[in-house]
Amino acid sequence: MTRTTPAGTPLGDSFHVYDTTLRDGAQREGISYSVADKLAVARLVDGLGVGFIEGGWPGAMPKDTEFFARAAAGELQLRHAALVAFGSTRRAGSTAAKDPQVQALLASQAPVVTLVAKSDRRHIERALRTDVAEAAEMVRDTVAFLVGEGRRVFLDAEHFFDGYAFDPDTSLRVLTAGFEAGADVVVLCDTNGGQLPLGLAETVREVIARTGFRVGIHCQDDTGCAVANSVAAVQAGATHVQCTANGYGERAGNADLFPVIGNLAVKLRMDVLPEGKLADLTHVSHALAELANIAPDTHQAYVGHSTFAHKAGLHASAIKVDPLLYNHIDPTVVGNDMRVLVTEMAGRASLELKGHELGVDLVGRPEAVDSALRKVKDLESRGWSFEAADASLELLLRGEIAVVDPDAPATGHPFELESYRVILDHRLDGEVVSEATVKVHVAGHRVIATAEGNGPVHALDAALRRALVPHLPWVDEVELTDYKVRILTGASRATQHGTDAVTRVLVQSSDRELEWTTVGVHGNIVEASWLALCDALAHKAMRVRSGVGAGGLRG
Amino acid sequence: MTRTTPAGTPLGDSFHVYDTTLRDGAQREGISYSVADKLAVARLVDGLGVGFIEGGWPGAMPKDTEFFARAAAGELQLRHAALVAFGSTRRAGSTAAKDPQVQALLASQAPVVTLVAKSDRRHIERALRTDVAEAAEMVRDTVAFLVGEGRRVFLDAEHFFDGYAFDPDTSLRVLTAGFEAGADVVVLCDTNGGQLPLGLAETVREVIARTGFRVGIHCQDDTGCAVANSVAAVQAGATHVQCTANGYGERAGNADLFPVIGNLAVKLRMDVLPEGKLADLTHVSHALAELANIAPDTHQAYVGHSTFAHKAGLHASAIKVDPLLYNHIDPTVVGNDMRVLVTEMAGRASLELKGHELGVDLVGRPEAVDSALRKVKDLESRGWSFEAADASLELLLRGEIAVVDPDAPATGHPFELESYRVILDHRLDGEVVSEATVKVHVAGHRVIATAEGNGPVHALDAALRRALVPHLPWVDEVELTDYKVRILTGASRATQHGTDAVTRVLVQSSDRELEWTTVGVHGNIVEASWLALCDALAHKAMRVRSGVGAGGLRG
Description:
The structure is a homodimer. The first copy, chain A, folds into three domains: 16-292, TIM Barrel; 309-404, no CATH class; 416-546, Double Stranded RNA Binding Domain (2-Layer Sandwich), CATH 3.30.160. In chain A, 37% of the residues lie in helices and 19% in strands. Chain A has helices at 35-48, 62-75, 100-107, 121-126, 132-148, 160-166, 168-180, 197-211, 226-235, 257-267, 281-292, 343-357, 366-381, 390-404, 456-468, 525-546, and strands spanning 16-19, 52-56, 82-88, 112-118, 152-158, 185-190, 215-219, 240-243, 416-426, 432-442, 445-453, 479-488, 502-510, 515-522. In chain A, helix 8 links the parallel strand 6 and strand 7. Chain A starts with 15 loop residues before the first strand and ends in a 9-residue tail after the last helix. Residues 312-317, 339-346, 490-499 and 549-555 of chain A have low confidence and may be disordered. Chains A, B: Its EC number is 2.3.3.21.
């Protein structure tokens, strides 16, 4: 991977959308990405068409070192973005060539490096415990060394705005050291997140006027203004904007990639993404929330589930006249949709669209669509979510068609459950053992099978396979590749034993051809998992029986 | 209640903090305030010291009519704020005096009325289906009538910014009609929420320059800039700012009262609240979230639980030097506090800081710190996470101290497990039943207890309580208030049965004094939950035994 500029965006290298979800975003409380998660995040963000993906801090974090190694080994093929490694300048009193941390940046094989440097005199003197001359030399030396090694280098000027207000000469000296040594963007960081847009825009304008450098912006959200500050900086002349997915990040978080892109693309009419990608904004935001295991913010600007939803009141009568009078943009532009007042229409349209995407032709079947819509709404009100469970949705849609069309493929489960029992023992010797027994009817036989597993769901899955495989050999092809659990607390408050909660389970399965995701919801986590497992097999069975369903499925 | 100006604020009537949580905030999807809720919200917001509280739309919403009736009857005694009724101008072709909706505003007995009027020509013509002259006359007539009846009147100019961009003359004509008839603030509303701060500030400046009117601002958050837009409008000359608690509102929501106040008070140094009230910001925000039955946003600017939490190793060592170098403000100013997250990124410095926060003195105990750090890193590499599990971390730290200090409080579990068994039946009739049996040694007795539950963890928790309560009555005080599950896939790929996965469970508990969170990790979800439950009881036991641990703990 040697790309150092964005590919496929109309603005080319003249404007950078730079994603740091994997480094700065991962500092959000509660996020703990595995290396596999990191690869998946990078693929999603690349699919959206951003120009740069900062993958982590090799050398400082073992997982990040492994991420870059696996990326370099070919596990990550970026179509649009250049891959960036983050690191700090060399230590005081050393040389870049000998600094182990700088060596780790080289070893990562990332073609682009973003170096963080202190640009506030107080930080240089009190945290770094050195003087301004040495701080500038650390920047110069490290940038020059990495540029000499063929890397493209960006400089993150940490605490820039606070430092510039305190002592502008020091802050500019750090920028100059980096720029003259070959860094081609100096990124002004509002590290403590204390800026407001009018003042920040003024500073960005002034720095560009005084230096002529190419300037980037990196905002934290401590005043609730990170998105506004980022956009204001671009209006003031910044041509590189660093964001994180859904604003994940330390403290109040970072500038949120999705509204920043929305504002730049829709409000400032800048073609910051490759053609057609803006409509992926909502989907990618939600998928990244799933990967972070954080519930999507339903009121997030542009991409939230409620963001174009209108509740009764002042607008009710008028909105039918012209929806665009009551929304700041057409929600479909960013892949979102309008809900509530025009739900019938919006819901139907999006369901038809979704069906089309899944290869299920709903056009000319209004009763099937209406019935499916009712079921989806009812299930979603009870905690189901089909947003990430295409295979369960496909089964539901095809089931509605099968009601009215005898030639449509059958969607029923390939077996009938009589009962199951799971026994979990924490034994005297400390071992924890799970054992499951299922009684099912399959292909005209009543089968009883028992298996052990690492946990109750694993045992149940193993017992079911043992029961089915002799009669349905294709079951053996199905692998369970991912399993996600979310506890949803109901509208009423949690009681002493959390009994109001329902559990939503997402199961991702694969065979030689496809990956597909199914969902199950129940008050009991094992039953919720069971429901998702059954849907996974029903989906495979449908394909085995009829060859359909291999269409547009994703994980 | 006849007050028409704010009481007790240094800025008096010259600047208005105006809260519309009860009207515009209530339009958020999922909020449904009872009249009692509305009274409680008004008391909390008044306690914070805002200048105006918009209580609702009398006549249009029965609950709002009742709210005003009960307020007028003496159920609501506001100490700082003036009470405001919201309504629209009279209908086209009628007179204000005869308009039932205008009569309802009078009947509400609210001393201040905010009238909403369309100020975008397209809305006047296409939604109102009248002409600009009549629209202006509707405003003039209604304002004049209410002022004549002794009310103070504000005018909300709906869709102002979109309208002004489309046809400024119409929009200014509506403002002028209201101002000349006696409205003493004209509020420029970004109703569709599509504005960005630099452009919005420019428009506010221009309108003030052209009219000389007193101008207010009302922003929706559809670009993610409502807070920034509100503050920018104030910098541009607006002296009245309309917000909702926690940004509740239709679609993406409204400008969030708390960061708006934080920014005005701390960044622009405006005394917008009565003296001493700024420190209530965090508490009032969380209390209002409880009343709305919406989980507080942990990353909300100024007031979020995580908003001053530091995770990065980069910062943690330097934070000890000077916390204000790494926070944009002193968190106690807004009633929040700083936390340190212990993660794999952390070092000795963060662990000492964290210990200090938890009331565990690690200074001068380098062996205990080193040993604890090794354990934390080892556990975190196996999927444990202490950043949200302060109570488990406290047990670990105190355990290390207890090794070297015989006087330190004991941290052991209050009982010994012999074994447990959980049986889960999906019965023939479709019912799913969970039953657990535990065998434990407690207070010198061997106890066996069995209980049923909604799921395996619920059953296990119930059986354990049944076994322990007769011997440890304090167990009954402990409530399980939240339960979170995360499946972590290991570095290697998930196998056919997902056997590489471990499960991380976070359990939040509370008693009359405290909330505390514990963590458990295991390949088996039930065992992981068991470990977290046991830590929860061990933490309580430690407090019961020694009185320690009630220090800095939060959920």
